[in-house]
Structures are given as structure tokens and as C-alpha cells.
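=== RUN LOG ===
request id: a7f3
mode: sequence -> structure
chains: 1
length: 200
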Amino acid sequence: MNFSQKLGIFCLIVITCVYVYFSFFAKNGFNFERQTVKENTETTVDSPIDTETDQKEDIKKHEIKNVKIFITDSNGKLRSVNRKCDTAIEKSCFAFAIKELIQAPTKWEKSKGLSSEIPAGTKVLSIREGANNILIDLSPAFESGGGAESTYIRVNQIIKTSLANTKQPVFLYINGKQANVIGGEGIMVKQPLNERSLDD
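=== RESULT ===
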């Protein structure tokens, strides 16, 4: 074997080695695999869940508040009963209390001798809660029937229920007009509503 043949074989070996190196050991080989492993590792890491914060938000959304409404006992005297106001459902617990008063008593309360002087046909037309006062507007049925004593008690039910559930001044309206005189007997009502609203 002469020198030129040896040189040709040597060059062929070098070319083969270079080809093998770039085919199997270049960065598209080992380095690519390392990047793939790194990416997979990063995507499988889960961020921690703050369960305590989620629970607090859930509790806040479903806070239950006690409100008081006033109805009459078997002796005709006013007494308070509780209602549960879910703040996740009700926009205003004050409005909820007034609506519950108009609908009271429940079947269970009736079985215990409790009743209400508010006429059955009475409806809440609106309850407007402003920054400085609250306006309760009831339908004309609130004034109907029962005589002076019944009218006095039903107005007192509104007064006591209002005072038990807000510190803001509350005004009573009947069919869109401020109710300074109520019923055929002309019961005078001083407004805003307070404990002395029905005093002569």
C-alpha cells in the first residue's frame, strides 16, 4: 500500500468520524433531550392552593344575620321574633326584615298564638335606602280596616321593626305619599319614625 492510498484511507476515516459526531453528539442530540426533560419538569409543578382564603371568601358571601320583626302575642302585646337574613341572597337585611314583617306570622308562629295587625292585602311598594335615610312605601291596604287600636298597633309594628334593624332615620309612605295621618280615625304619625312617633 503506497502513501497516497494510506492518505485516502486516513481522510475517509476522518470524514466518517466527523459525520458520526455531528449525527449523534451534536446539540440536536443530547442537549435537546436535556431541554425536553427540563420543560416537562417545569410543567408538572403545581402552584399551592390557598384553601384558607377560599373558605373565608365563601363564609363572607354566605353570612347569616339575625333580624327582628315585631308581631303580637295572644294578649295583643308586641313581641319580637327572629328571622335569618342570608347576605348572599338579600341585598338589604333591613328590606328583608320589613318584607318578613308584612308576611308574618308563619304557620308555626300562628300555632303559638302569635298574629299581626297588618292587613293581609298589604304590599311593599318600595324600600329606598339612601345615604341619610330610608323610605318605606306601602300599599293603601295598610290603612284598611281594624279601627283605631288595630291601626295604632300595626304602625307600631313598623316603627319597632325599623328601629331594631337600622340606625338611619326611617320614613313611612303610603302609596307614594308620606304617611303623617293614617286610617279613617286619623292616627297622627310623627316622622322620621321613633318611639315617640305615636304620642299625642
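=== NOTES ===
The mean pLDDT is 84.
The chain has six helices and eight strands.
=== END ===
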